[in-house]
Design a protein that fits this description.
Two copies of one chain form a homodimer.
Chain A lengths: L18 H8 L3 H8 L7 H14 L5 H8 L5 E6 L5 H16 L3 E6 L4 H13 L4 E4 L10 H5 L4 E4 L9 E5 L1 H14 L5 E4 L6 H16 L9 E2 L5 H13 L6 E4 L2 H11 L7 E5 L5 H4 L2 E4 L2 H16 L8 E4 L2 E3 L10
Parallel strand pairs in A: 1-2, 1-3, 3-4, 4-5, 5-11, 6-7, 6-8, 8-9, 9-10
Antiparallel strand pairs in A: 10-12
Helix pairs in contact in A: 1-2, 1-3, 2-3, 5-13, 8-9, 10-11
The structure holds a DNA duplex.
DNA sequence: CTGAAAGCGCTAACAT
DNA sequence: ATGTTAGCGCTTTCAG
């Protein structure tokens, strides 16, 4: 005898049994079967057992779609639209969201935009058609007005990492400026003046915040020797590596580096590998093994970020109608060696 | 004038407009409105325009739930039930799945089990009630018979990383034994005999495969000096770190280490940090910055794994009824230094 | 080209 | 304790 198969289903797919069929087999009415299977009161012990037996026999499974339609066309799904789940930052956020939602019986549905604003919009539309209860977005596009109508019609939005532009909505943001300022001050306090800043796309709000914070620290210290070493719009690991290599050939070279996200830090680490007199380095975003490599970072808690976003969403779902809230996730400089190297 | 708000939706949620209302406003029948909005043929230019205008005015959005119910109670959703999305291995797999599904207009829904077999079962049930088109599972529990009925009723299953037990179903697995054998041979060829093996829960199939492959390599070389250094059921980073520290205090100590997944490798790297005469190290699973740290690994492609799984699922959804297939993802030893250190 | 009627599978409201 | 009727919002016949 062979094992039951899950593979060849397409061959014999005689449509799933419905509640009506269960009721017929059990010799009761549709509604009684419904009551029995939903553990509602007012079902005789024996009747309930008969219904459950019939359901088992038929391999019946409740049709959640029909139920949702009848109950008001709103699912237990919460959508997350983000740039790239393969980035550990986003996946940590997603896992924080998922865990918190589950506490409330909600389910996370994810979609990647690959940082494409048009795809983002299409995915948002798709989620709304699916009647998600709330929508969490790490926006790539810059204008979000198109979401406003939705918000007014019962689908709460929560923005993550980047603030909403063009509408009021809940958001969970990182203290970008504060973290970057702290990084700048940290390097200054270790004697650095020629500090290179390697940043991602400057049009993104978090990157702007980090740039601003860094500049504040420099201005406050009356240092402007960093300016020749500013490099923005470096968007991938490879470009980051090249950029850092180029910076090191300058004369004089920078004595320190500040990279404004985990991808750029990875690129910098590659460029610095085996370098005899590596400049000091601080990276924004903590990462696995930073302790092993000894990389000083501006750390924050992405799982907490997801959790807070899920909480905001849940509050709205539960009927909270107050003004939009913004939660700021704090940052902290974690010294591990690379950021404490003195200027050469 | 203030920005449109997305926050206070709960206050005024007058139920979403329906197609009937759009039709009324446009002065056409329900069906005509449906045709116009779905770009079906046989709609006069002017009529279509009027309908679309009415829809915009009302802020109408199609109710995907009603559509799905009518079209056969099956969604465009594909479920993924996995252990822990925060683990970069799983999130890479998820991103491979997501990308491939999107090619076919399918949407990924994810849920984490935290490696809990009961939660896994509950989540699978929940997905089935939601009428997912296919279900991808990285199973934590060991018996999967309970899925068999579903498989016969039109919901294809694909198992990832761990083979199905108790039913026939498509699967995508890593060449665990082959990779581990290659790692063993690699260390042997560099002169190692006292090789420590640090493994995760031995009841998990991938771990067993890796153990077996390693043992095969040792047996083939007639080496059994590794046996005193076998440590299994090491399940988290912290325990891995402790275990490696303990191993290093043995007399004589092992001259090489093989860690059988990314978590254990991380723990080993922490234990080895700053060690004057670190043993050679090979880790199963590649990871970010392994190149920077110089860690030799048994690499494989988790994104490809996700992609293959999504392809199998899509084939089944499209009606393929052949026997269950298993795709094996190949592995490769990537030498980066740590695995090539000679015995002390 | 347009419309009327039926019904997907379920639950809510109202009998009995 | 059980049954009957209606209808969620849409698409699918089948007629005009």
């Amino acid at each position: 005898m062979s094992a039951p198969r899950a593979a060849g289903e397409a061959v014999d797919n005689p449509r799933r049994p419905t509640l009506t069929q269960v009721a017929e087999l059990a010799g009761v009415s549709l509604k009684t079967a419904s009551r029995a299977l939903n553990d509602e009161p007012n079902v005789a012990e024996a009747t309930g057992a008969r219904v459950r037996q019939a359901a088992d026999l038929l391999g019946y499974r409740l049709n959640g779609i029909a139920r949702e339609l009848r109950r008001g066309a709103t699912s237990a799904l919460v959508g997350l639209v983000s740039g790239d789940l393969a980035n550990p930052f986003y996946s940590a956020v997603a896992s924080g969201i998922e865990r918190e939602l589950r506490q409330h019986g909600l389910q996370l549905v994810t979609a990647n935009t690959d940082e494409d604003a048009e795809l983002e919009r299409a995915l948002v539309e798709a989620f709304l058609e699916r009647r998600v209860r709330a929508l969490l977005v790490v926006p790539s596009g810059d204008r979000h007005e198109y979401l406003a109508i939705e918000g007014n019609r019962g689908v709460p939005f929560v923005f993550l990492d980047r603030p909403p532009d063009g509408l009021e909505a809940d958001a969970v943001l990182i203290d970008n400026a504060g973290g970057a300022r702290a990084a700048g001050e940290h390097l200054l306090s270790h004697g650095h003046r020629r500090i290179a800043l390697v940043a991602d796309l400057a049009r993104m709000a978090p990157q702007r915040g980090r740039l601003d914070g860094f500049v504040q620290a420099m201005d406050a210290a009356g240092n402007d020797q960093w300016r020749p070493y500013l490099r923005t719009d470096v968007h991938d690991v490879h470009r980051a590596e090249e950029t850092v290599r180029e910076l090191l050939t300058r004369d004089p070279p920078p004595t320190a580096l500040f990279t404004t996200n985990n991808r750029l830090t990875t690129g910098a680490l590659r460029a610095l590998r085996g370098h005899p007199a590596a400049p000091a380095l601080i990276g924004f975003d903590d990462f696995d093994l930073a302790d092993v490599i000894g990389t000083t970072v501006v750390a924050h808690d992405p799982v907490a970020m997801g959790r807070e976003a899920a909480r905001l969403a849940h509050r709205r779902i539960s009927g909270f109608g107050g003004p939009a809230q913004t939660v700021i996730i704090p940052t902290e400089v974690v010294a591990r060696g690379s950021g404490e190297r003195a200027p050469a």
